[in-house]
Structures are given as structure tokens and as C-alpha cells.
Q: What sequence folds into this?
């Protein structure tokens, strides 16, 4: 792929152990979940209808796990270009409820070369205001050399 | 409870035309203000041909593109209303832009039944979807693991 884009981060600037700049989102609201359902096409009523939430024993509505992955994705594409991502995966570990404030963070764990392309890999996490982990994951991205 | 004989089964392919406005809607719902997701002009100013897909845009292809998702799951014995999301993983192979027409084929790649602590059983299923674009180029793999409490 050819691109004249100004890279956000260059291979020379990334070191194993670096933190990815963290992202803290606004509190999760019911309206946001309704909006996310409409946008994503995931209309499972567990995420929008408080009565279903009560019946399922989740104690009210819970956020779409994919919304939380979306927050982590926002952090990632603030750090590297979205087209630089090669892999992005998460495991959903806990339910997110209304008014939770999610903080996403990440750390670089590997830097290597594949077919002349420098790649970085790292671990990711999203946790709420109490430190309860909602999502943990990993990613791989390609980063350009400064004088490529 | 799901039918183990269905492991390895692929479902009917589906198509999805990538739309700029859906990427805008999804990133708006997430609260991501990055201008490249919201206007073609901003994306072009950043040196891109058009609005790029955001990291979790493949969820659009899975939900809006795969309209038979519910019936595919029912076909292997899963009650869609009891699904919880366990894992989600994307492998981005080539760039995807608005107006690309993707064809996705979903395969049930793994499944097991576990005894839960409350005396019930849980099915854990993994589905992979392989996406080709209109040029038959392989552009994306997605992998989702769901947990179904029986």
C-alpha cells in the first residue's frame, strides 16, 4: 500500500515496555447503548431494555461488549493509523453498566520485522472506575520507518 | 444445546457494501471524534483515498451484512437470546474502503459444552468469517467466541 500519510508513530520511536497513551471515556449512558445498537446492528434487548436485563439476572441493562472494544479501538487508532492495524483481539471479562467510566490502556510487548515491515505488538485493557477489568486483549500493527 | 456434528460447517455466504455513513454512525456511538471517520474530506487531508474503516467496523459487516446470523445459529442449536460474547478478534489483511462490496463466509470452527457451577451447562462456540472484496481479494478474517448458557 502506498500512502503519503504523516505517520503518528515511527518504528524508531517505539520501544518494548512503552505505554500507549491511555483513553478515559465519558460515563456510559442508556442513550449511548440505544445509539450503539442502531449503529452496530446488535439489537439484543439485554443492552437496551431494562426489563430484559432484570429477567436475565444481570441487574439492569449491560453495555455491548463491542462498545468497550470500540473504546479500545479508539485508543489504538489514536496511537497508530487505523490502516496500520494488522490484528486486534479481545476477551470480554466483565459486564459494563450504566455510568461506568472506562479507561483503556496498553503496553508494547514486541517489536519485530516481517517482510521488511516493522511491526509492534502489545497488550490492551479496559477497566472501570473501580479497576474492574472489562476487556483484555492484544494487537499487532505495522509502523513505518522514519526515513522509508 | 448445540449439535457437535455441525463443527466445521460453513453457512451461506452474505454480502455487505461498505458505507461511509455507517462508519460515521458507529464511531459516533463510540464517541470517537477522529475526523477521518466522519468526513471524506478530512480523510483525504490525512492522505487517505476515503474514510477508512475504524478498528471495530467489522462488527457492522457481521451484524448488518449477515442477516441470516440468527437462523445460522439456530441451525446449529443455539438460542440467540441466551448468547453472551466471549471473545472477538480481527485480522486485517488488506485495506477496506467505502463502496467495497464484501462477501463473508462464516464457519463454525470450534464448539464445546462445559458444566457450569450452577448445575447448568454452557456451550462455547467459535465462528470465523472470511471476507473477500469485489476483486476476490482476501481482506479480513473475524473470529467470535460466544457463550450460551443452557
A:
Amino acid at each position: 500500500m502506498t500512502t503519503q500519510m504523516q505517520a503518528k508513530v515511527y518504528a524508531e520511536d517505539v520501544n518494548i515496555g512503552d505505554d500507549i497513551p491511555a483513553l478515559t471515556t465519558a460515563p456510559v449512558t442508556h442513550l449511548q447503548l440505544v445509539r450503539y445498537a442502531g449503529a452496530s446492528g446488535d439489537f439484543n434487548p439485554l443492552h437496551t431494555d431494562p426489563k430484559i436485563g432484570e429477567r436475565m439476572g444481570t441487574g439492569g441493562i449491560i453495555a455491548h461488549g463491542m462498545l468497550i472494544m470500540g473504546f479500545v479501538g479508539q485508543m489504538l487508532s489514536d496511537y497508530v493509523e487505523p490502516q496500520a492495524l494488522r490484528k486486534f483481539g479481545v476477551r470480554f471479562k466483565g459486564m459494563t453498566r450504566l455510568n461506568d467510566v472506562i479507561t483503556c490502556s496498553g503496553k508494547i510487548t514486541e517489536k519485530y520485522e516481517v517482510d521488511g515491515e516493522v511491526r509492534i505488538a502489545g497488550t490492551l485493557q479496559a477497566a472501570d472506575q473501580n479497576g474492574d477489568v472489562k476487556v483484555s486483549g492484544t494487537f499487532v500493527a505495522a509502523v513505518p520507518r522514519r526515513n522509508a | 444445546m448445540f449439535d457437535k456434528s455441525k463443527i466445521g460447517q460453513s453457512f451461506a455466504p452474505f454480502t455487505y457494501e461498505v458505507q461511509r455513513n455507517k462508519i460515521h454512525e458507529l464511531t459516533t456511538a463510540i464517541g470517537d471524534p477522529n475526523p477521518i471517520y466522519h468526513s471524506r474530506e478530512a480523510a483525504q487531508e490525512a492522505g487517505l483515498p476515503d474514510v477508512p474503516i475504524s478498528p471495530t467496523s467489522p462488527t457492522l459487516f457481521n451484524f448488518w451484512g449477515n442477516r441470516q446470523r440468527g437462523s445460522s445459529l439456530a441451525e446449529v442449536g443455539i438460542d440467540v437470546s441466551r448468547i453472551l460474547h466471549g471473545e472477538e478478534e480481527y485480522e486485517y489483511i488488506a485495506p477496506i474502503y467505502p463502496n467495497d462490496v464484501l462477501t463473508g463466509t462464516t464457519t463454525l470452527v470450534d464448539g464445546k459444552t462445559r458444566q457450569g457451577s450452577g448445575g447448568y451447562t454452557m456451550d462455547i462456540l467459535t465462528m470465523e468469517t472470511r471476507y473477500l472484496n469485489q476483486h476476490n481479494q482476501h481482506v479480513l478474517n473475524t473470529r467470535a467466541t460466544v457463550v450460551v448458557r443452557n
Q: What stands out?
A: The longest strand of chain A covers residues 103-114.
